[in-house]
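Sequence in, structure out.
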Amino acid sequence: MQAHQTMVAQDGYEVALFPLEYMRISQGEGGSTSHQGSYAIDFLGWGANGRVLKCPCYAPVTMKVVYASSGTYRIFESVDKVHLADGSLDYLTIWFSHCDDNSPYYLGRIINQGEQCNSTGTNGNVTGDHTHIICKKGKYTGQVQVNGHWTLRGQSHCYNCLYVNDSHSK
């Protein structure tokens, strides 16, 4: 997804798009490290010429901030139901961690699809600049600790929620 990109299906509902221009995974789901027991994925900022620090992430759908931590992460919920990558029509909840400046993403703020909603960063317990993304189909229902790590209650795989394509529609 690119800055200001939007995608609305013929039925008028937005399509949930992958929030970065390039997909570069630095840590996948599960495993024996900080994602153990969760569907979280870490993504590096990447561009046509390689690594991008403080890489912008864009709102995959029009969404509002429903949880604002004291610094390291924000949780967003779609304002309306959206088309998810598994073919369902539901609300999307998405968690972003490690942005170095979360101040513009205050509780209740609405961010339109395609507007910047986060960036990769080093805020919190990290080993380098990246963003940590967790998705959930449906409305925000809180957080739960799994194997000593926090995740969304009722978490979903990112690939079931976010469409990845090469479109550049606006």
